[in-house]
Amino acid sequence: MASPKLIAAGVVVVIAAVVGSMCVFTVRQDQQALVLQFGNPVHAVSEPGLHFKLPIQNVEYYERRILELDPPVQQVLLSDQKRVNVDSFARWKIVDPLTFRQRATNTTNFVQLFGQRLNSVIRGELAQAPLVTLLSDNRAQIMEKIQASLVEPAKEFGVQLIDVRIGRTDLPQETSQAVYNRMRSSRIAEAAQLRAEGEELKAKIQAEADRERIGILAEASRQAEVLSGEGDAERNIVLGKAYGQDAEFFEFYRSLESYKSALSNGSTMVLSPDSEFFQYFNKSAPQTSR
Hints:
Oligomer: single chain
CATH superfamily of the largest domain: Band 7 domain
CATH topology of the largest domain: Tetrahydropterin Synthase, Chain A
Number of domains: 3
Order of helices and strands: HEEEEEEEEHHHHEHHH
Structural class: alpha+beta
Number of strands: 9
Helix content: 55-70%
Largest sheet: 4 strands, antiparallel
């Protein structure tokens, strides 16, 4: 039978082991801890490893890693009166567990509280911007302004705000259809205007071409008349000189020209043989003496 001393020693060892285990706690690399006594914070532990506390104290653990806050999708009215569905998110980490516990109690409460504030700031900023801004490079500047507006409120919770982003910006179904209809109407009106401008330009070019054509034809006709007149004058001068030199030959030449004009077009003429038109044909050749 074991002696009372041996039993007492065993009890002491067990009690010491239990008390010792209650005085030691471990913090992992991805954790930070807050030591509490009767529910009141005593001090924070940010270094990983083995740490000590009083048996009457307990420990709460908090994430050291970067966490994500993803509030519900909200509908925002933009400055151009268009409504969009905005899906935003933020990345954050706890840097002061004591402040975080005092202001938010736990991660679930913080996500709810700060998510509401995030959506409120996003609504305020996007209400000052048109839809085209959200679809351009200026979107990054809007996100920088939103993040700058939330940095100080995050510190009030003992949190460091790492990043804020708008994941998706979608038009509601009814707005998408209305925007499509407006765009379609705008393109139809633009096409009609371009066609009208094209027709107007075509008419101007055609009118200008017609004016140039008429001018060119008129000038060509004038030059033709001038050249024809000059040719006729020169011809009359030549014929006049020929008539002055030999009137009979001139008459004969004029008759040949008349024959050529009258007979070259394939027409049929019925004339008397003794007509003056054939006066040179009626002249018999001189009789040769035998």
